[in-house]
Amino acid sequence: MRFLGVDIGSRHIKLALVVDGALVGYTGGENSFDPLARCRELMADLPADRVMATGYGRQLLELADDVLTVTEIKAFARGAAHHFPGCRTVLDIGGQDTKVISLDETGRVRKFEMNDRCAAGTGKFIEVMAASLGWSLDEFAARAAAAADEVKLSSMCAVFAESEVVSLVARGVPREAIAAAVLRSVADRVTALAARLPLTEEIVFAGGCARNSTLAAMIEKNLGRRLLIREHAEFTGAVGAAFLARDEALRAGAELTSQTGEGVTV
Fold first, then answer.
1. What are the residues facing 114 on neighbouring strands?
2. What gap in Å lies between CA 150 and CA 171, rounded to an integer?
3. Alpha-carbon distance 128 to 130, whole Å?
4. Distances (CA, A) of 119 to 1, 21, 41, 52, 55
5. Which of 3, 43, 176, 229 is the S-S candidate for 246 at Cβ 3.0 to 4.6 Å?
6. C-alpha 232: how far from chain center
7. Which residues contact 160 (CB under 8 A, 6 or more apart)?
8. Looking at the DSSP assignment, which residues form a beta bridge with residue 206?
9. pLDDT per residue over 170-209, tens digit each?
10. H runs (alpha helix) in 91-212
């Protein structure tokens, strides 16, 4: 059987396909003003026996197409535990929220902390700050890593922080230093969130912001621990949803017959 996981984020939609208990690939694209239509468009080329949706807009598929749904917490925990079976802590900086998830020795969610009330410390915050400095996200991370000095952002609010960034640019502060300050503020927020939980290794950094090596290095320094980061970390939630769809089928006693995993790219 083919199991499809769909992670409907505020900025991107990610899909992962599991066939015969094996992850066979990923695909996805940017979200749009019509998330449901965009989901259906992306799913059209990936026929599946069962679908599980997660993420910011998962209810859209549940209400329109009666698709099973699961919280991002469970999806990220399952996906991270698939890639790293010894995983005990998951960090995810999403487009709209930041999560730290603590797992028990069996991979089940033990406790979690989430910041979903403020844009500061999220992926969207980084995106807006990068645009304010005139850089792409990749260039933003690279320039931050090359900063000779670092300033400190005093604003804790994303709106005021953006104004502060504009003000720093006007004062002639090097953009590299400002970029480093932005990532430092995000790293500090994630670290403060993680401090509320028992921080147990192995620690997995999942989600799209895990691709920002400068941010990852700052978090590692704050925590004094090494982070495990997998290529295509942004698909962790979709991978978890796909495996949870399979878990659900196994519990229901479905016969998992063999099929191919055509139609996806890795």
1. 99
2. 14
3. 5
4. 39, 37, 29, 27, 17
5. 3
6. 10
7. none
8. 92
9. 889 999 999 999 999 899 989 999 999 988 889 999 999 9
10. 123-132, 137-145, 158-170, 175-194
SS3 56: coil
Q: Which two tokens stand for residue 160?
A: 């005021």
pTM of this prediction exceeds 0.85: yes
Both tokens assigned to 100: 């730290």
Torsion of CA 239, 244, 246, 252, to 10 degrees: -170
Segment (H or E) for 113? strand 109-115
Distance CA(185)–CA(189), nearest Å, equals 6
Tell the residue number behind the tokens 């994630």, with chain if given: 190
Q: What residues have CB less than 8 Å from 251, skipping those under 6 apart?
A: none
Q: Cβ neighbours of residue 53 under 8 Å, at least 6 residues apart?
A: 5, 6, 7, 8, 39, 61, 62, 67, 68, 69, 70, 241
Tokens 């980084």 correspond to 126
91-134: per-residue pLDDT in tens? 999 888 899 999 999 889 999 999 866 666 788 889 888 998 99
Regarding beta strands 109-115 and 50-54, do their DSSP bridges make them parallel or antiparallel, or are they unpaired?
A: unpaired
Whether residue 115 contacts residue 189, with contact meaning beta carbons closer than 8 Å, is answered with: yes
Given the structure tokens 């094996």, which residue do they identify?
22
Look at the block and give the residue holding tokens 């799209």.
208
CA distance 149 to 197: 32
**3-class secondary-structure state, position 32:** coil
